[in-house]
Amino acid sequence: MHFPREMETKSPAYELTQCIACGSGESREIADFEAVRREVELLWEFHGKRLRPSTPPERLMDRVAFSEHPPFRLVECERCGLVYRNPIERAYELDSIYADATPSRELLQGLHDTQLPAYRAQARRLWRVLGRRGAGLEVGSYVGGFLAAAREVGLHFEGVDINPEVNAFTRSLGFTVHEGDLESVDVRSPVDAVAIWNTFDQLPDPRGTANAAWRLLRPGGVFVVRVPNGELYAALRGVASRPLAGALARLALAHNNLLTFPYRYGFTIRSLTRLLDRVGFRVTHVEGDVLVPIADEWTRRWASMEERMVKLALGFAARRSPRRAPWIEVYAQK
Ligand SMILES: [Zn+2]
Q: Which of 96, 201, 276, 319 could form a disulfide with 263 if both were Cys (CB 3.0 to 4.6 A apart)?
């Protein structure tokens, strides 16, 4: 079949892959093309119902069009439980999606102000794990929300990010930001911590990044990654066809940005531990968490209350058992 030139260059190029955590090629399908397409429809319907009729279309787009394309097909590794896209988009496609976004300064400042309070919990947790002041690097520093929260508790963090315009904004707030990826970063002395709160699951090569973190850390230094929990996604997808359980599962997934799985990898505690072990780290601590609140002035009142209730219940379960958490933070030591 012939496609116009335009379409050929814009459609993602896929390749078959295997588990990046344990190397196994044995996997079980958890969502095929049709199942993912139905989730995309559910996501539109979910947010359409919860936003006021006067909502500007771009605010709806923020909620349904993530920087990552929906997967073509999702599988779960038989050996370690990693949830991953198979086939997967080629890495160069991924870079172009992220590096192209060019938001306005006003929007970036708004994002910074919204994200700073949410990052205070992470900054405090990391401070407790380190037990003292220290220096670190944050990969995916974006608008500097965590950099600012870290500064408040006496941690000196520098950012690493690929988007030049966003980096210019973050530097204007008084932070050092390295342009590019962690593999290309050079520091004068080894750091106490490397944190990846947002992008580890979206990196073309998570293991390469974990290796780079190892190289930059001092012995005893802490590597922490926060990722969507593939184990919970796979479990909730498994009950999707049951009437009541399916409806509750969709609520839990949608309120935590897991519906349509807009991520490259769905790490589980087991698969991430395996990957970090192979790099040389020792996992010391895991925290379960929910996504930060996403309701805003466009959200209907009942929907904001629903979101609070869902996150309260899930947050309670998550702290008791991180395996059931929508998001997990894994702390490892060099
Ligand atoms: Zn595996």
A: 201
